[in-house]
Design goal:
Protein name (chain B): Tripartite tricarboxylate transporter permease
Oligomer: heterodimer
InterPro entries (chain B): DUF112_TM
Largest sheet of chain A: 5 strands, mixed
Distance between the termini of chain A: 47 Å
Strand order of the largest sheet of chain B: 1-2
Domain DUF112 (chain B): 18-434
Order of helices and strands of chain A: HHEHEHEHEEHEHEHEHEEEHHEHHHHH
Pfam family, one (chain B): TctA
Shape of chain B: globular
Transmembrane segments (chain B): 20-50, 56-75, 107-132, 138-160, 167-187, 193-214, 316-338, 350-377, 383-401, 408-427, 463-479, 499-516, 523-545, 574-602, 614-633
Helix content of chain B: over 70%
Radius of gyration of chain A: 22 Å
Chain lengths: 372, 651
């Protein structure tokens, strides 16, 4: 095993940090120099388990980051699990130094508890700076027996009896569809305890739940075949954010209306109100800008820029564009201004919207988050 | 279909692809031999290296690794009584007594062949699944999954040992501890005491190591001799083959059951183990199960290799991993650009066949490797245990800590280990405890979901009725068989009643705590743990009363310590050594504590020379650091680390 790993562990963490960093002091502000990272080991903290979505995403990026980062540092992924991602993120918040050698990969289940004021959260997104943002999307679909094809049939969907949805939990990513049902005025029984979206899809295929959604890559590989066989009918995508931060149709599903379109067509008026504000905030944090790579805010600008530059080069890399499909989908990861805008939107929630959402969780699911 | 099957074989048999498969096999073997580390750790290890490999090579490597880990993890189960991974727990019940009796060779050879045949059956079932998996898996709804969990629970009947009451309470204890953490229906946190660690529930691998391995190590260390009481391996290699030939029908049955259960997403691998073992106890005549019956080894080892083939079915065709290692397998597939789903039985069928062939070939390769190396490894059982004990303690701690990488893993290991030690001593059977624990979460989740989806009329579904009939049949057959023995030594040691009565208060206290906690939650969050705790209080209180006050508590009374030879070290001595290591690591971090522990144990307890002590300490801790480096792991921190910033690996 040792010869295998020798490649990845060429320089072993702190023990070898001594000499290499000396030249860095002389660097021009804002400009990264190869010396900053030569022979260094960067730890990329992923607060989720090996093999999961976030882990796979980070591992996909690893060789590109190594290739494009000034000085080609060794990069290792450290999975710190627990508390659905809160544990590892708490540890990053407590320990990461502003030396550019520890980075964090966040995801929806790390953003949500922060936005909702979960008392177990000991991190604050305002203390970090994003160097890359990674979007995804999702599609809501129903069983064909319901006889609903689009927003025009909303009355039939509203009066349908026995609408059920398999959810991973009241404050999970599946809050976004639960709020969508609320906005559409659907009477859906939300059944908790699904371990992963895959189980939810299985319940749909078995006929236990007539309504479901999947994130884009799972929708394309697992549900589209069902759609072609006439066993599922897509209603809408959640949509995606353009560079200006507006909700637009998801380019992966150009023929499907995005949720705001669908909602407007179903209700006959432009969406507004606290439920809509909550949906929007959680959609951005959960899909529109689901994952970020962040560093402590006090990290010197030249180091932060080195990461931005590396991710910018990655996104332009032909091999990356060719291979990203199964991992990221045909979504454009962003760096710089669009990423900063997405970050601001995904990590802030107006106090009154937060309070409304907490009350809604209490009212709808009898779920209390505890005092902040 | 046959053409595609053949062309996949041709694709696979290029030298470089076979080389990658062999590499996977080698890594799976190494990780399997190490106790407490299974396919999950192995896959996590190779994941960083598969990027850039062509798809078939990468699949061959991943599949080879998974296939062999389940064969090689037998070593530690049989030779040391440490579960090789949390998916091969039941092997120790019969395999380890065989090794102690000096029949390690026979047990190993039977288990390797059983593993190989099981693996091949798994590959066959996987290839049949290409045609029929979808309708079959979709036929099993939440109601049927709940009934399968009940089927697992019904095995407690034969796993309970000589006192059925104590077996039930042990099972209830597992169920109760299994409800700690987030409630499936409401996401309320139960008995988490405000900690993130407990909010995830207790980790199964830590629990299994604590309940089985720790008491065994403490017991062996006291004996002072070798693991094999005769200090011999036995010339059983041929005998093992003969066992396989004699019990071919059991082998075939358990392989099939293993791969079918493995194919059901959401049931969990460790349940399969116990269902299969319980099935063997129920159906085999004149069993000496629990005392070193080779059929126990064959049944479990065949099923856990077969299960990997089954587990690939939902992973490949639905994109739903049915275990931790399958989740990593799926992640690996995504990284090399393969999307799981219907296309793997459609346009990418070639990849599915490549996996099936890899599974078959790797199982044969792995078995060969195990046979070639086992005379050497089996010698472990003839080495003085004082020299092995510190290694085993270290490996168990490491395996536990690698589970959630939280220092709390170690404290849990110690706490549950003490519980296990007393359960062993006072004749509370441990298998029902584990069965209860692994079934708590699926039972609660699927019962709740089934009622939500179908209402209580779910009990009238045909699938539910069929499984209910199977349960009734198995329980009926099982009732006429001899039950599992608690220990390999079944002599009548009754001991004093008072300490046993006091220990009987421990489950009562836990049930009371669970019941009390349940009163603080909503109906859906409280109903399952509340009912378990209430029912168990009704059963466990009379047991404690009987132990305390009855003139003759009968079969309830058992104390393995009666007549123990104090000159070999007291009951507490080696527990204190172990507790010292954990306490030390709370003070100065695990690595420093482990070094001190090795030096002290080898010098004082094992009475080694300084040279030997230093060499063994250096080897052990050097190896530990190397593995931690590969796994990108920091050791558990102590008080020292919270005050001073130390460089890795001391950090």
């Amino acid at each position: 095993m040792a010869d295998l790993t020798g490649v990845m562990h060429a320089g072993r963490r702190d023990l070898i940090r001594l000499g290499a960093g000396l030249g860095a002091a002389a660097a021009l502000p804002g400009v990264a120099r190869a010396q900053d990272f030569v022979g260094r080991t960067i730890e990329w903290i992923i607060p989720m388990s090996v093999g999961g979505g976030s882990d796979t995403w980070a591992r996909f990026h690893l060789p590109f980051l190594n290739r494009h980062m000034a000085g080609n540092p060794t990069i290792v992924i450290r999975n710190i699990t627990g508390g659905g991602g809160i544990n590892g993120t708490n540890q990053f918040a407590a320990r990461a130094r502003p030396d550019g050698l520890t980075i964090l990969g966040t995801t929806a289940s790390i953003q949500f508890p922060f936005l909702l004021g979960d008392p177990r959260v000991r991190y604050d997104y305002a203390n970090w700076v994003p160097v890359m943002a990674s979007p995804t999307g999702g599609v809501m679909y129903i069983r064909p027996e319901l006889g609903v094809r689009g927003p025009g049939d909303i009355a039939r969907l509203r009066s349908a009896s026995g609408l059920k949805f398999g959810s991973q939990g009241p404050t999970s990513l599946d809050m976004v569809p639960a709020l969508a049902f609320e906005l559409l005025g659907l009477d859906v029984q939300v059944v908790m305890g699904m371990q992963g979206r895959g189980q939810g899809r299985l319940a749909f295929e078995r006929g236990e739940t007539p309504i479901d959604y999947q994130t884009s890559s799972a929708y394309i590989s697992q549900v589209l075949p069902l759609v072609r066989e006439g066993k599922a009918v897509p209603l809408c995508s959640w949509g995606s954010l353009n560079d200006a931060g507006e909700l637009v149709r998801d380019s992966n599903f150009p023929d499907l209306p995005h949720f705001a379109e669908f909602l407007q067509a179903a209700t006959g008026r432009a969406p507004s109100g606290p439920a809509w504000e909550a949906w929007k905030a959680l959609f951005v944090a959960g899909f529109g800008a689901q994952k970020f790579v962040v560093l402590p805010k006090s990290t010197p600008a030249n180091l932060v820029n080195a990461y931005k530059e590396a991710f910018r080069k990655t996104i332009a890399d032909a091999e990356y564009r060719e291979k990203r499909g199964p991992v990221i989908g045909e979504y454009n990861e962003t760096v710089g201004e669009p990423a900063d805008r997405a970050y601001a939107a995904a990590t802030t929630m107006a106090p009154e919207v937060r309070q409304w959402t907490r009350d809604w969780l209490q009212r709808r699911f009898n779920h209390t988050l505890g005092r902040e | 279909m046959f053409e595609a099957l053949l062309s996949a074989l041709v694709q696979l048999s290029s030298p470089d692809r076979l080389a990658y498969m062999a590499l996977g096999v080698a890594i799976g073997y190494a990780i399997g031999v190490l106790p407490a580390l299974g396919g999950l750790a192995g896959l996590s290890l190779v994941l960083p290296f598969i990027y850039g490999l062509d798809q078939v090579s990468a699949l061959a490597m991943l599949t080879g690794l998974v296939a062999v880990a389940a064969t090689a993890d037998t070593y530690s189960s049989i030779l040391m009584g440490i579960p090789g991974s949390s998916a091969s727990q039941a092997t120790i019940l019969d395999g380890f007594p065989m090794a102690r009796r000096g029949e390690a060779a026979r047990a190993l050879s039977a288990s390797f062949i059983a593993s190989m045949i099981g693996g091949l059956v798994g590959a066959v079932i996987l290839s049949c699944a290409v045609l029929v998996a979808r309708p079959l898996i979709l036929a099993l709804g939440t109601a049927e999954l709940f009934m399968l969990a009940v089927l697992g629970l019904s095995m407690v009947g034969v796993l309970a040992g000589r006192s059925f009451g104590k077996g039930l309470v042990a099972c209830g204890l597992g169920l109760a501890l299994g409800t700690i953490g987030s409630a499936p229906a409401t996401a309320e946190y139960r008995l988490d005491f405000g900690t993130l660690y407990l909010s995830d529930g207790l980790p199964l691998p830590v629990l299994v190591l604590a309940i089985f391995a720790l008491p065994e190590i403490v017991d062996l260390a006291r004996g002072g001799g070798t693991i094999s009481k005769t200090a011999e391996l036995g010339k059983g290699w041929i005998a093992g083959l003969r066992d396989i030939a004699r019990h071919w029908w059991l082998l075939l049955r358990t392989s099939t059951i293993g791969s079918l259960l493995g194919a059901i997403p959401g049931l969990g691998g460790s349940v399969t183990d116990w269902i299969v073992y319980g099935h063997a106890v129920q159906t085999e005549k004149n069993g000496q199960f629990g005392k070193g019956d080779v059929r126990g080894v064959i049944a479990v080892e065949a099923s856990n290799n077969a299960r990997e083939g089954g587990a690939l079915v939902p992973t490949l065709f639905f994109g739903i991993p049915s275990s931790g290692s399958m989740a990593v397998f799926l992640g690996g597939m995504t990284l090399i650009g393969i999307e799981a789903g219907p296309q793997l039985v459609g346009e990418r069928l070639d990849l599915t066949y490549a996996i099936i062939w890899s599974l078959a070939i790797a199982n044969v390769m792995g078995t060969g490797l195990c046979f070639v190396t086992s005379p050497l490894i089996a010698k472990l059982t003839t080495i003085r245990f004082g020299l092995i004990a510190p290694f085993m303690v270290m490996i168990v701690c490491f395996g536990a800590f690698n589970t959630s990488r939280d220092a709390a893993d170690l404290y849990l290991l110690l706490a549950v280990g003490v519980l296990g030690l007393f359960m062993r001593r006072f004749g509370w059977p441990r298998p029902p405890f584990v069965v209860g624990f692994v079934l708590a979460q699926p039972m609660e989740t699927y019962l709740y979901q089934a009622v939500q989806f179908y209402g209580w009329s779910f009990v009238e579904r045909p699938g539910v009725l069929i499984i209910a009939a199977m349960i009734a049949l198995f329980v009926f057959i099982g009732a006429r068989q001899r039950r599992l023995a608690d220990t390999d030594d079944e002599s009548d040691k009754r001991g004093h009643a008072r300490p046993q009565a006091i220990f009987a208060l421990v489950p009562i206290a836990i049930f009371a705590a669970v019941l009390l906690d349940a009163t603080k939650h909503s109906f859906l969050g409280a109903v399952f743990p509340g009912m378990v705790a209430a029912a168990m209080l009704v059963i466990s209180i009379p047991i404690a009363l009987k132990l305390a006050f009855a003139n003759d508590p009968g079969s309830l009374l058992h104390d393995g310590e009666e007549g123990a030879d104090e000159s070999q070290g007291g009951f507490w001595t080696y527990l204190f050594w172990f507790a010292g290591l954990i306490l030390g690591s709370a003070l100065v971090g695990f690595l420093l504590a482990s070094i001190v522990f090795f030096l002290a144990f080898l010098r004082v307890a094992a009475k080694c020379s300084w040279t030997k002590t230093l060499v063994l300490t250096a080897i052990a801790n050097g190896g530990l650091v190397a593995v931690a480096d590969i796994l990108v792991l920091d050791f558990p921190n102590g008080l020292l680390q919270s005050m001073i910033d130390l460089p890795w690996p001391l950090r």
